[in-house]
Amino acid sequence: MISQPNRHCTVELQALPSRIGQVRRIVSAQLRYWHLDPLIDRAALGVTELLSNVHRHASPDKQCIVEIELMLDRLMVSVHDHDPRLPEVRDADPSATCGRGLAMVAAVSESWGVRPDGESGKVVWFTLPAPSPTATLLARPSFGVAVESPGPALDFAEVEHAADALRAAHAPARSAVAG
């Protein structure tokens, strides 16, 4: 189930390897929809690491909830699971293929943490600094705004071609992920 009120998105899933990739694509699409493209790589890496930890370590089950929420100046990503054991950052050998997930989350995020969630669960979260709404608006093309241009006049075909290119570049994100 995916719910997307204003600036909040929730995905419930079993933290299985095949689902982790799907959730990474959902998070990426949601951030594109919110015009937060600069945060996609770090958010996708962080959610992948947290879901991998649920897959490897959580018991009694792998059921979890991923939440992303855009606040005024930051994006919060959290993973809720049913295992009350709190994770710990470990010193991992540089050549190790596992054991560095939380250290990676700490390295790419503004802040991160963990808190108990009721009697039988926890929430592991991280935040990323979000661009200001003004910067996001300035980065987007403005349609329907008349601007005087000192340059040469464009003919209708050139304007149509430029508008089509802008529409294609800013098409809504689509996902081929089955529910």
Automatic annotation (TrEMBL):
Keywords: Kinase, Serine/threonine-protein kinase, Transferase. The keyword Transcription does not apply. Residues 14-127 form the Histidine kinase/HSP90-like ATPase domain. Gene3D superfamilies: Histidine kinase-like ATPase, C-terminal domain. It comes from the Bacteria. The keyword Kinase applies. Pfam families: HATPase_c_2 (PF13581). GO terms for molecular function: protein serine/threonine kinase activity. This is ATPase.
